[in-house]
Design goal:
By secondary structure, the protein is of the alpha/beta class. The strands form 4 sheets. Strands 3-2-1-4-5-6 form a 6-stranded parallel beta sheet, with helices on both faces. It has a 3-stranded antiparallel beta sheet with strand order 7-10-11. The protein has a 3-stranded antiparallel beta sheet with strand order 12-13-14. Helix 1 crosses helix 9 and helix 3 packs parallel to helix 4. The longest helix has 19 residues.
């Protein structure tokens, strides 16, 4: 099976897919990028627009293509699906986007594709499990963008709250990429310094009420953005670019991607977003970071919502 480690495809050229393509161009991760969309003209237009920036970016080929062009890709990013509308939760998209995903997977699995599937469409945890179930690919090769974006939101807000570079904040949002997600405050730190110790040294305070406020801002961020501009796409493009970099460069980065569970935290038969080592082969290892009692209960509750969502689907291949 011939795989080009520097060739990727994006299925779905809406605002999210196009923003991810632009991010890939900025990063210079790939030498070839194939854009696919049910609207061929849209994919061609995005490819043309992106190519206009090549003299000022990385050297690469960007073309609209068909599924026959993806067999040697190392990575396929799936963003195809209905957008979340104002007032909708991510889980409200489940029926529409499962059927779209099913049709996309039928095309991909009909080819000799041996790379990694990265699911971005929402609800991402449900669709990651669905993609793994329907594709028959090893779980290492089917991951979702998960709570990488949510974790970035937490880092950004917490950095602003503490007046410190957000890149020095180490904290995770885990569970569902959605309303039942949770912040792992018990393991949060600033460059290895426990969060409470950091606040004490700086003479700052981060009360339980402050933490709850920050968590709500993270959880509700997408709703606020969608209400104001109709969609979110820059943040997720940056998050997907980070995941892709770890895959292409074999970085072994720890990222809270959506992964199929096999007993972690006593959970299985679903996908959730958990800190995981991501490398050239996709998922290398899920890290069971310590959780306190309340966090464990919140994770189990999040898992319960995912099970209910999956139970509503017929996942026979």
């Amino acid at each position: 099976m011939n795989i080009n480690p520097r060739k990727a495809a994006i299925v779905g050229c809406g605002q999210v897919g196009a923003s991810i393509a632009f991010r890939f161009l900025q990063q210079g991760l790939f030498s070839q990028l194939v854009l696919l969309d049910v609207n061929r003209n849209k994919a061609e237009g995005e490819a043309m627009d992106l190519r206009d920036g090549l003299p000022y970016g990385a050297a690469m080929e960007i073309n609209a293509g068909t599924y026959d062009d993806i067999t040697d890709c190392s990575l396929i990013v799936i963003t195809a699906g209905a957008n979340q509308k104002p007032g909708e939760t991510r889980l409200d998209l489940i029926g529409r986007n499962t059927e779209i995903l099913r049709s996309v997977l039928k095309e991909i699995t009909a080819r000799n594709f041996g790379g990694i599937l990265l699911i971005v469409s929402n609800p991402v945890d449900v669709l990651t499990y669905t993609a793994w179930k329907l594709s028959g690919y090893p779980r290492e090769r089917v991951i979702g963008s998960g709570t990488v974006l949510d974790t970035g939101r937490l880092k950004q807000l917490l950095g602003a709250e503490l007046q410190v570079d957000s890149r020095n904040i180490h904290a995770f949002i885990i569970g569902e990429h959605g309303d039942s997600e949770l912040a792992v405050w018990s393991e949060a730190n600033v460059s290895g310094l426990d969060l409470e110790d950091f606040c004490r040294i700086r003479g700052q305070s981060l009360s339980q009420e402050d933490r709850e406020r920050l968590y709500r801002e993270v959880r509700d961020s997408a709703y606020q953005i969608i209400q104001r501009k109709g969609a979110t796409y820059y943040g997720i493009a940056m998050a997907v670019g980070r995941i892709a970099a770890s895959i292409v460069k074999d970085e072994h980065a720890v990222l809270p991607v959506s992964v199929v569970l096999e007993g972690q935290y006593g959970l299985r038969g679903l996908a959730l977003s958990l800190p995981s080592i991501v490398s050239r082969n996709g998922l290398q290892e899920i890290l069971e970071i310590p959780l306190n009692h309340e966090e464990q209960k919140a994770l189990e509750a999040s898992a319960g919502q995912m099970r209910e969502a999956l139970a509503s689907l017929a996942l026979e291949a």
